[in-house]
């Protein structure tokens, strides 16, 4: 699985490919999106999706 960061204008910013990096170490701004690309022959693991959701929830707390 590969994670890619795109800006509000759908411009590619970078791959999120450093296992030990925090999400805040990438140029994430309001309106950015993370694209999850599943590699051929693999299925996404639910634990990875949960980790992504938890990381995003920390960036965008619910009011």
TrEMBL record:
InterPro entries: Ubiquitin-like_dom (IPR000626), Ubiquitin-like_domsf (IPR029071)
Organism: Theropithecus gelada (Gelada baboon)
The name this protein goes by in its record: Ubiquitin-like domain-containing protein
Pfam families the record matches: Ubiquitin_2
Span of domain Ubiquitin-like: 1-37
């Amino acid at each position: 699985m590969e994670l890619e960061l795109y800006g509000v204008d759908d411009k590619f910013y970078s791959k999120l490919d450093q296992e030990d990096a925090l999400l805040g170490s990438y140029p994430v701004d309001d309106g950015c999106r993370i694209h999850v690309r599943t590699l051929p022959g693999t299925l996404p693991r639910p634990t990875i999706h949960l980790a992504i959701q938890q990381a995003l929830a920390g960036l965008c707390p619910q009011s």
